[in-house]
Amino acid sequence: MSLKYKVETANLLVYQVHDNNRSHIVNLENKTCSCQRFEYDEMPCSHAMAVLSKRNLSCYKYCSYYYTKEAFMATYEDSILPLGEATSWNIPDLIRNIVVLPPKHKRAAGRPKKQRYKNGLEAKAQVVCGQCHQRGHNKRSCKNDPVLKPPRKRKRS
């Protein structure tokens, strides 16, 4: 991914990364990038990775402690004790008498959203002309002669 970027040095810690028609500023000292993914994810974005690759620096130094093995192990350090049988639980009456119902569903106004968002790699559906039945244009912009369908034979009953 970092191979398509052109990296220019502003100073030892600030770099300008060019990608086709876009340009991003990466600051290694502050762990920031103008795309803001570096700060948001707390791990190097693709622009920062291009800079780190050019300088032969380890990307692990620029990742948050949150992504380390030590942080993962610390998450599960404390043990979770089993609760035992439900009959032996001490539940206060105030909580025991509360009835939790599902939320009331209110349909939103307007057209419903699509169930699924298409991946960027999925091919876009091509338009098919209703006049000449070729792909890539519609009936309104068609410059071809119309294709006549043969007449359908009637069924006898």
TrEMBL record:
Which top-level group of life is the source organism from? Eukaryota
* Region (Disordered) residue spans: 135-157
Under what name is this protein listed? SWIM-type domain-containing protein
Mind telling me which InterPro entries this protein's record contains? Znf_PMZ, Znf_SWIM
> GO molecular function of the protein, one example?
zinc ion binding
Stored PANTHER family: POLYPROTEIN, PUTATIVE-RELATED, PROTEIN FAR1-RELATED SEQUENCE 5-LIKE
Domain SWIM-type: residue ranges: 15-56
List, alphabetically, the SMART domains matched: ZnF_PMZ
Q: Identify the keywords attached in UniProt to this record, alphabetized.
A: Metal-binding, Zinc, Zinc-finger
